[in-house]
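Before we proceed, please read the two lines closing this message. Report back on whether the structure tokens fit the sequence:
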Amino acid sequence: MSIPSVAPRPIQLALRDAVLNADLAIPRPARGLVIFAHGSGSSRRSSRNQGVARELEHAGFATLLLDLLTEAEDRIDVTSAEFRFDIPLLGSRVSAAVAWARTDGITASLPVGIFGASTGAAAALIAAAEHPSSVRAVVSRGGRPDLAARALDRVRAPSLLIVGERDETVITLNQQALARLTAPAQLAIVPRATHLFEEPGTLARVVDLARDWFDRYLTSG
């Protein structure tokens, strides 16, 4: 049954080292919370991730679309790109967002999953490794899970790695990461899709895969 749309509301996460902007949407009832980890110069305004988020909300999942960089860092990164590939920094920010979600009065009761795109997928897996009892599921879209490096060995959350059929280099990198994951994990290759899933119907397939994964693992137990 589809749940009616809910308007996201802007919030700020006051973390130990930064204040990050985010958009939080909580349908009623909510079956879980999916934190979105953007990467490679993207932000919470990513049209692709917003599209996925809206569909997950219709399925009963709350969503938190999070900027992993502060406004000052983002202004620097636009010209230097020095932060977008700082995987330890991005991972620490997603990890802090998970900690926030587990203690905030609005979201504390909701099981947590993470949806990571591009370098945000590595950040998502690092956060999952840091919070094995809190993060129940991870989905990566066109991600670089290989950049999570040693954290891959510590991930306990079931992880779905979604890659476009025509994104051949990234397929190989995802296969390498998959081989290191010890928790339940799967590689899903979307036919005809390139890295950004811009081809007709390919992003809808991402939505279906992500929703099914969160249905299976985020709401169980």
User: Anything to note?
Assistant: Residues 26 and 106 are 9 Å apart (CA to CA). Strands lie at 9-14, 19-25, 32-37, 61-66, 112-117, 135-141, 159-164, 185-190. The chain has a mean pLDDT of 91. The chain is about 35% helix and 25% strand.
